[in-house]
Amino acid sequence: MTNFFAKPPLYISIAIVVVIYVLTFAFGISIWLGHIALLSLIIVILYDGWQINAHGKSIEADREVRDQLSLSDNQFVNYRIENNGYRNLEIEIIDELPVQLQKRSFIFNKTLSAQETITEQYKIRPLIRGLYSFGKLHLYISSTQLGFVQKRLSYEIAKDVEVYPSFIQMKRYDLQIFNRVATLSGIKRVRRIGKTDEFEHVKNYTQGDNIRSINWKATSRRKELMINQYQDTRSQSVFCVIDKGRSMKMPFEELSLLDYAINSTLVLSNIILKKYDYAGLLTFNEKIHTYLKADNRSGQLTKISESLYREETGYKESNYQGLYFYLRRMVTRRSVLIMFSNFENAYDMRRALPYLRRLNKLHLLVIVFFTNTELLTASQQEAERLSDIYNITFAKKILMEKDLIADELASYGIQSILTTPQDLSINVINKYLEIKAKRMI
């Protein structure tokens, strides 16, 4: 009986029976009228409960969720409910969602006709990497005719899924770049200086390919346009270096700067490997945490994804001196270092500057740091009170200091990208394509 619960119509019916008993005492009516009403209600409740119990055996339910979810992207959990019985039922679907999703009001209310199967989707957006545990799926069924009681059906379909850095964004940028539609999303085309490519293979022509590469002999044989595909003969090592210090814990739109950097690193690493370069990874804060040697073998992207899955920010200041000596020892070939960090003021940048300058002499260093979008919004508001003028001025001062940091880095020959978190991937991709096209290393 613990799986049976009363519904509002039952409480209303009990209230009516009580009123009948009161009226019998007030007006001297036979008390049997109240007894008959109570007995009738009990019979109806038992009949309704018996019906629900019998038809509950004909209900099947299932939940479908991917084994791996993508961080910060909208995805769906699918539910399938099947009624194999011959009566219409009212159902409530309640799922035990992972605690990381912070969903405490998950309820679907549906009418399930006889011999009907329904499917429902629920949109989720994971904002924390790690293991997500889906628990039981509960259905509360009741009759569409009486609806006095409902029965809970619980399905043991618990499942653990892992939330990885955004492979959905990785695939999207992959399609945009290699299907020649990148300019529609803000990815720039940089003209290549010189030509040292070597022939790779002949492939079918697709819209956007260079018509000067058409292979006319192959076209005449196949009776369809064929073009020569070339690949760059010079591969370079590109390391994504991620600062995991406390400044990277800052959240924007419910996602930390570290997670933005992690998503962008996976996107960029995929493109690096597709461009026949070598992709590597290094993460650090007060010490070096993860180091993956630059490589372009088939399992490299999986290694990078697995490493990024486990990264967490710390609470200590980042050690740029240790980073310099570690890279000097481990990376002997001149490489591209794309460093994701966050300098909130010029003082923080100048503390790290001596080691950044040394790294830039050994490698091509690109510093990626972030514009505070909340301050940007605050600086664009209109002042209505005296305090608003102070807040707007303070916001503009901090934003201006970010520009000064970029200018100071440039004065020492260090390239930088000052970007909003939302535009991080596009701006980093553009910088990589520029470096590759201009052969800056």
- Give the CATH H-level superfamily of the largest domain: von Willebrand factor, type A domain
Provide the residue-averaged pLDDT: 85
Domain module count: 3
In helices, the fraction of residues equals: 25-40%
Report the biggest beta sheet as strand number plus sense, adding barrel if it closes. 6 strands, mixed
As for the CATH topology of the largest domain, it is Rossmann fold
CATH classification, class level of the largest domain = Alpha Beta
CATH architecture term of the largest domain: 3-Layer(aba) Sandwich
- Count every beta strand, where a strand is a DSSP E run of 2 or more residues: 21
- What are the segments in which pLDDT stays under 50 over at least 5 consecutive residues? none
Rg, rounded, reads: 32 Å
Provide structural commentary.
The protein has helices spanning 8-27, 32-56, 167-178, 216-222, 257-274, 300-309, 320-330, 346-362, 373-379, 386-411, 424-437; strands at residues 4-6, 59-64, 68-70, 75-83, 89-95, 108-112, 117-124, 130-134, 137-143, 149-155, 159-164, 197-204, 226-232, 237-243, 251-252, 255-256, 278-284, 288-295, 336-340, 364-370, 415-419. A hairpin with a 5-residue loop joins β9 and β10. Strands 18-17-14-19-20-21 form a six-stranded mixed β-sheet, sandwiched between helices. It has a five-stranded antiparallel β-sheet with strand order 1-10-9-5-6. The protein has eleven helices and 21 strands. 38% of the residues lie in helices and 28% in strands. The chain has three domains: 1-164, Sandwich (Immunoglobulin-like), CATH 2.60.40; 167-196 and 234-437, 3-Layer(aba) Sandwich (Rossmann fold), CATH 3.40.50.410; 200-232, no CATH class. The model has no long low-confidence stretch (mean pLDDT 85). With 441 residues, the chain is α/β, with parallel strands linked by helices. α5 (257-274) packs parallel to α11.
